[in-house]
Amino acid sequence: MPLLKSAIKKLKTDRRRTRENSGYRQAFKKAVKAARMKPTKAALTKAFAALDMAAKKKVIHKNKASRLKSRLSLLLGRKG
Length: 80
Prior knowledge:
0% strand
C-alpha cells in the first residue's frame, strides 16, 4: 500500500479509471460480438456507437475502432 498522500490519491484515481475503462471495454466487446453473431443494421449501429465511445475515451486506439467498424460493415454487406 502507498504511504505518501499523493500516492494514495493516485491509487484512488487509478482504481476509478480502471473501473470506468473496463465498463467501456466490456460494452464495445459485447456490442461487437452481438453484431458478428447477427449482423443487422441495428446491431451495427450499436456496435459503432460503442466503438466510437471507447475510442473517444482512449480505451482503444482510434484506428482499431476504425478497423473493427470496417470489418463489421463488410459482414453486413455480405449478409444483407
